[in-house]
């Protein structure tokens, strides 16, 4: 059976964009399982849509940001549920030793603590850019002008680094 | 004040925003001309290096948040269960369909589930559960593959699922599904199933990472246990384990 043009395009988009979308979500949420689920949910919704939007990358980012926002409303309850069930939130598929794992987890918490000092839009812009999205994609996804992306990144990057160093010292 | 916090504002030179866009290799008007200026201007070259170093520190810090990119798998949503359950159950047969879908990117997970969706196939079915005292045993072995096919059994009001062995890790997911059968799938390891008298015994001799059990609405009660240790009673305990982003799915760890 020959796939429709939309399905073929969706497949190509998935191959190309899933890693960046996952990376953005993983860094935002600190939960690789949830990041995978939300990233895939975005592609399911695109499939349901039946046609490609004008800006598919920005569309995907908008969908996952909405899903993340909805998830944050339930985060406290969700984490308690998962921890009570003994589910290892954010576990890695690799198996470092316990000491390395603790160091990694501590570093993640430190970075998240610094990111939380940014407002939501600045944090999203910083994470999107460093997940591989272009200024244009960041601008369309966040509903800002492309020329303001650089300004936001400078401000967000400076604040993020300043807060991190104040809290935890200069990074190694 | 730290150098990365002070913006360059001399109108004779590009702003920090423009220099950062160069560091990020963005395309914009006059990019080539500005690059040419930076090469010949000592202060702009130095400023660009500072911004690049600062950006590298940020990239490194954000990189510490990363977990490995997962092996992509078929979309999970229960809304698509009728199509995707079939797709998952015939995962082992997808390779034979690759030739028919050569126009798509071969081997990609989305390619596989789109192909499977277009040509649904019947799930693997063991012999029907006997109502006579003589037990009927049916086994199907799942291969070590991405969400390998397992078994499908007719739904009944009460389902008892037992894992033969404890596992150090791994999870069980219960998903409310549309199709009429109860289906069992797993990812990783080697799993065998014994079905008798309304009871399914999962022989997890080589533990899988994930076991997924699709539960149609005809099933009213499920108990999953390892020996005498109960993992979950569905729907009694399900509220504790239901995922916030998918109310039709509950997940419980196998770890004692």
Give the SSE map.
The complex is a heterodimer of chains A (172) and B (256).
Chain A: H1 5-29, H2 32-49, H3 56-84, H4 98-115, H5 120-129, H6 135-142, H7 146-168
Helix pairs in contact in A: 1-2, 1-3, 2-3, 3-6, 4-7, 5-6, 5-7, 6-7
Chain B: H1 16-23, H2 31-40, H3 42-63, H4 81-89, H5 94-97, H6 109-118, E1 141-142, E2 148-154, E3 158-163, E4 171-176, E5 181-187, E6 190-196, E7 199-206, E8 210-215, E9 221-226, E10 229-234, H7 238-241, E11 242-243, E12 246-253
Parallel strand pairs in B: 3-7, 3-9, 4-8
Antiparallel strand pairs in B: 1-6, 2-5, 4-12, 5-8, 6-7, 9-10, 11-12
Helix pairs in contact in B: 1-3, 2-3, 4-6
Task: Spell out the key features of this protein.
A: 172 residues, mainly alpha, 76% helix, 0% strand, B: 256 residues, six-stranded mixed beta sheet, 7 helices, 12 strands
Structure description:
The complex is a heterodimer of chains A (172) and B (256). With 172 residues, chain A is an all-alpha fold. Helix content of chain A is 76%, strand content 0%. Chain A has helices at 5-29, 32-49, 56-84, 98-115, 120-129, 135-142, 146-168. In chain A, helix 2 packs across helix 3 (56-84). Mean pLDDT of chain A is 84; it is low at 80-94. In chain B, the strands form 2 sheets. Chain B has a 6-stranded mixed beta sheet, with no helix packed on it. Chain B has a 6-stranded mixed beta sheet with strand order 2-5-8-4-12-11. The radius of gyration of chain B is 27 Å and the shape is rod-shaped. Chain B is 26% helix and 28% strand. By secondary structure, chain B is α+β, with helices and mostly antiparallel strands. At the A-B interface, helix 1, helix 2, helix 3, helix 4 and helix 5 of A face helix 1, helix 3, helix 6, strand 11 and strand 12 of B.
């Amino acid at each position: 059976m020959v796939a429709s043009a939309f399905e073929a395009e969706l497949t190509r988009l998935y191959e190309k964009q899933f890693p960046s979308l996952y990376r953005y979500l993983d860094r935002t949420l600190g939960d690789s399982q949830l990041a995978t689920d939300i990233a895939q949910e975005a592609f399911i919704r695109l499939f349901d849509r039946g046609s490609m939007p004008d800006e598919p990358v920005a569309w995907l980012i908008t969908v996952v940001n909405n899903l993340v926002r909805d998830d944050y409303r339930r985060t406290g309850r969700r984490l308690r549920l998962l921890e009570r069930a003994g589910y290892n939130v954010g576990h890695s598929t690799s198996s470092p030793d316990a000491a390395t794992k603790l160091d990694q987890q501590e570093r993640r918490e430190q970075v998240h603590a610094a990111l939380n000092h940014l407002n939501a839009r600045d944090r999203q812009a910083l994470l999107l850019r460093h997940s591989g999205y272009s200024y244009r994609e960041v601008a369309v996804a966040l509903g800002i002008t492309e020329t303001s992306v650089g300004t936001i990144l400078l401000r967000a990057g400076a604040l993020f680094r300043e807060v991190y160093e104040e809290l935890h010292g200069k990074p190694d | 004040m730290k150098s990365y916090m002070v913006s360059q504002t001399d109108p004779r030179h590009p702003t920090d925003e423009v220099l950062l866009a160069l560091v990020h290799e963005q395309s914009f008007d006059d990019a080539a001309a500005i690059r040419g200026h930076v090469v010949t201007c000592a202060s702009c070259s130095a400023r660009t290096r500072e911004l690049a170093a600062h950006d590298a520190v940020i990239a490194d810090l954000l990189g510490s948040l990363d977990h490995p990119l997962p092996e992509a798998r078929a979309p999970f949503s229960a809304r698509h269960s009728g199509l995707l359950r079939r797709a998952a159950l015939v995962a082992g047969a997808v390779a034979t369909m690759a030739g028919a879908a050569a126009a798509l990117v071969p081997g990609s997970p989305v390619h596989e589930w789109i192909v499977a969706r277009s040509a649904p196939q019947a799930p693997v079915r063991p012999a029907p559960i006997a109502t006579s005292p003589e037990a009927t045993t049916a086994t199907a072995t799942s291969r070590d593959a991405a969400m390998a096919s397992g078994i499908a059994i007719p739904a009944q009001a009460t389902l008892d699922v037992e894992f033969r062995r404890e596992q150090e890790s791994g999870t069980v997911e219960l998903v409310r599904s549309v199709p009429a059968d109860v289906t069992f799938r797993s990812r990783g390891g080697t799993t065998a199933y014994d079905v008798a008298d309304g009871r399914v015994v999962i022989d997890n001799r080589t533990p899988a990472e994930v076991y997924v059990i699709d539960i149609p609405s005809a099933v009213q009660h499920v108990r999953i246990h390892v020996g005498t240790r109960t993992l979950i009673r569905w729907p009694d305990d399900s509220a504790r384990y239901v995922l916030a982003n998918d109310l039709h799915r509950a997940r419980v760890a196998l770890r004692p």
